What we know:
The protein is mainly α. The protein has 18 helices and six strands. The protein is globular and about 70 Å long.
Amino acid sequence: MLRKSVTESFGAAVSCLSTSHLTDEVIRRSKRMILDTLGVGLLGTSTPVFKTVLQYSQRQQAMKNSKVWGRPGSSLPPQYAALVHGVAVHSMDFDDTWHPATHPSGAVLPALLALAETMPVKPSGLELLLAFNVGIEVQGRLLRFSKEAYNIPKRFHPPAVVGVMGSAAATAKLLGLSPSQSIAALAIACSSAGAPMANAATQTKPLHMGNAAQGGLEASELALLGLVGNTQILDVESGFGAFYSDYVPHQLAEVTPISYYRWALEDQNIAQKRFPAHLGMHWVADAAMEARAKFLDKYPNANLNQIKKITLRVPLSRYVDCPVPVTEHQARHSFQFNCCTALLDGEVTVESFSKSQMNRSTLKDMLLKVHLENPQDNHSSFEKMYCEIAVETTQGEMFTARCNTFYGHWRKPLSHEDLVQKFKANASTVLTPDVVEGIIYTVDSLDTNPDCSMLWSYMHFNKEMLHTDECYYSVSA
Length: 477
């Protein structure tokens, strides 16, 4: 029997994995990812970058359309729905993060929901879960082919590299593509991969996620029509290996109808964020809040203006070293900003990145007191990094704290109650309480639901823009 190439093994896995291969743990974790992604996506529909990309996408027309989240009466061709919803999910950097480093859900779920809505036979919830997990699996396995990918990225933004491959794999699965067609989808998607880290901390960064969702969906649709690419795309250095200098690929495990399959999601849990900022900021915020608590415990009525100097010991990572951020996107990628916000307010929230909060004189004054150090043992990896903070007062006192693992990290995941609470807080900015509850119930019962169409129907509502001719779905429905 001839040995499969790496690309052939991926094509076979994408085509042959079935709902029987899903495990209870994979289903549980992926439901959490889906709920969280829908919530941050709904919240993201209020952002300027979403509105700009939506305005562009509304110029497109098609015979089949998918509903726009939070926009009753609005619909787009599915590839553009995938684009704008991918942008929405990543517009505040509030979406989930994995290890090796990427945001896995935002490129996959928008593409799947946009495609599923236009299919003549709507997939079951379990089929949607399978396709979602195939997209997550492909990303996780590709990232493991490079040691470089385990670190905080320096050159390429990971969702733009592996995200488009995950979107292609997921949509290929939902379309029922053959192994050879799945290989073609991956090859086509690879030609849409890659975006530079230079656009981090700008409005263009969310576009990386939208492009990944759109590019993967288009790749699968083109493969379905017969377009082909390099059948060794995952094997050769000039293929997917072009994105990583230390790329060493290997085959996926053989998949048969009765075989057990070990998913990457079983071995590596997901981080889900408590506030909308780069993942590294969560170590900083937790350490700063602990130092603040120590300070106020000793001096309950003290003025934080007594702080003379703040020392942060964090990994060396230039794109999140932003001493004086001007825009909200820079603030979401600023060790200094998130440290000072946590010290001043005892928390970091969605509102922390508003103009009024960013322009506070107390915050601007405190930013000038922050000094960064990069200890050699503090690795640029979301698995190994830590944050230490030392707050020195004008009286010469020192208050210190250290965060090794923040709450929400994969080693310390959010409780079910806190994850649901995060979703409610995000989704309720757009939806009424009963529609919010409807989504929670629908996601929770995906593995037993024969038709998942209620999911995108719920996402179409907006409590501020309800049309009288829209069919209103209650939880009982």
